[in-house]
Amino acid sequence: MLELIKKAEETHTLSKNEIVELLKDDQYNDELFKAADRVRKKYVGDEVHLRGLIEFSNICKQNCLYCGLRRDNKNIKRYRLKPEQIINFAKNARNLGYRTVVLQSGEDDFFNVERMTKIIKSIKQLDIAITLSIGEKTREEYKAYKEAGADRYLLRIETTDKELYEKLDPNMSHENRKRCLKDLKELGYEVGTGCLIGLPGQTIESIADDILFFKEIDADMIGVGPFIPNPDTPLKNEKGGTFELSLKVMAITRLLMPDINIPATTAMETLNVNGRLIALRSGANVVMPNVTEGEYRKLYALYPGKICINDTPAHCFSCITGKINSIGRPIAKDYGYRKKVMSKK
Length: 345
Prior knowledge:
Blueprint: H1 2-11, H2 16-24, H3 29-44, E1 49-50, E2 52-57, H4 83-96, E3 100-105, H5 113-124, E4 129-133, H6 139-148, E5 152-154, H7 162-168, H8 174-186, E6 190-197, H9 204-216, E7 221-226, H10 243-256, H11 266-271, H12 275-280, E8 286-287, H13 296-299, H14 313-326
């Protein structure tokens, strides 16, 4: 097993069977995390990039079985920020020191191309990078957002197991999901994707496929988080994912994709009080604090136990900055684009 970790650290390649072996064997987890941390330090340095998350609408036309924002959830109070509120939250984030904002929402058709491009253009004037996380769109829509000034796009594949995906995401097509990622890459976005760990019916083999898929499409950012069952969804009684397995998937992803950006996901901290710091020491180099203000933080209820829902953006910024500095890591001052390293040696 140590040989496999060494191979991954030095060559950044593993076969599917080798990934499965690593995921199944917990004896050498510490060595795995330390190797991922060394690769992170060598390729992307010690700086941690902060991305300010603006959750601007919890209205969604999709009905994914694992998600609290699903269309059929009648127990959630829905909201939709006005364009000027979104722009204002972005201004406040910029004033706090963020160099990237992430505009995230359910698939809410109110925010059509015309409205979204206006918002993007206004925020772009703040000298800030923009990441969108607003779901499946047409190539034309993605192109319009890119031309308006969007830099990055997050769209998790969730799982590369087509059958499982289409079971958990009713009336959605796995092929279309992949088409979106391909279009985004071709249009020049930095592309973020990722998977949920611990979905009911998911196998270790399919998780290994997920990791190889990230490498195959040469994603620029990978977000890995545990599936946390939401009481307002059909999967409320399922077991959910573990912190340890999520961390291992993240670490192996770092070993195989040494120069990409990997967030210490917020869901990890729901399962472990020091989850994000542990992740930052196991391969991660990005944190995405919430810069949404007021009650909306609570209402964007993807899963239960979401952290920091009663905090202000200013408190979150100083809190996470303090935590990151406490482990000897500085906060990055640039926009945080992926710096591709040509030589993988």
